[in-house]
Structure formats: structure tokens, C-alpha cells
Amino acid sequence: MTVSIKQFAQESGVSEHTLRFYEKEGILPFVKRNEHGNRIYDEQNFEWIYFITSLRETGMPLSEIKRYAELFKQGDSTIPERKLMMLEHKKKAEEQLAQILKHMERINYKLALYDVMEKTVKFP
Questions:
Q1: I want to staple 7 with a disulfide (CB 3.0 to 4.6 A). Which of 3, 13, 50, 88 is the partner?
Q2: First and final CA of the chain: distance in angstroms?
């Protein structure tokens, strides 16, 4: 099954402009074209865009994603390097998550204080 760029953008949640940019930069490899030269996207492209989106949303710079895509295109000999990239990124994401959890503890503490205050303060 293949879809147009418009359908792909709708289903993936990534704008057509961003998709074109990702393809041009080599971040979204393997985009095919039909007989009229229009981009067509398949299941492999969906897997890639969801992977790219996950990396972006966890803070990986586009330059690193591009490097990963370049390595992927080079084949299995780059598996150790790609794995190392993912391990390093995972560590950064875990550190971010720990920081967010720490912030959530502070927010929850403040909310608990408000709960106590609401029980003791009379409102007009």
C-alpha cells in the first residue's frame, strides 16, 4: 500500500513541508516516486517517520538523526555505531525523564499544600 504526501502527512501528523525537508536532508530515506514524479510513501516510510518523530520529541538533533540515517543506508556493518548512538540517546532521554519526574514531585508537593490550605482557609 502506498499513499500520497498529503495522505502521509495527515496520517503521520508531520507537515508536507517537513516531509520534503526531511527527504531533502536525507533524514527520511527511501521515499519513492510514481511515474509522474510524485512522492509515494509506504509502510517503511511510516516506520521511519514515527522513529524520527520519537527521536525528535526526545531531543535528538536533526544532525544526529541524519547521521543515523546515513549509517542505516550503509548497511549492517554500521549496526555497532547505530546501537551506540541509540544507547547514548537513551541515556540522555533517561536523564531528561529523571529531571521531569523531579519537577513533578515539586509540583505535586505544591498541590498538596494547596489541598491543605483549602481545608483550613475560609473563602468568601
A1: 3
A2: 63
pLDDT per position in the chain (124 positions), as tens? 899 999 999 999 999 999 999 999 999 989 999 999 999 999 999 999 999 999 999 999 999 999 999 999 999 999 999 999 999 999 999 999 999 999 999 999 999 999 999 999 887 7
C-alpha cell at 6: 498529503
Cα torsion 68, 70, 73, 79: sign: negative
Give CA 53 to chain center in angstroms: 2
Give which of 72, 77, 33, 74 is closest to 55, Cα–Cα: 72
For residue 61, the Cα-to-chain-centroid distance in whole angstroms is: 10
Per DSSP, the residues of 34-103 read -TTS-EEB-HHHHHHHHHHHHHHHTT--HHHHHHHHHHHHH-GGGHHHHHHHHHHHHHHHHHHHHHHHHH
Contact 40, 3 (CB under 8 A): yes
Sign of dihedral through CA atoms 105, 110, 115, 116?
Answer: positive
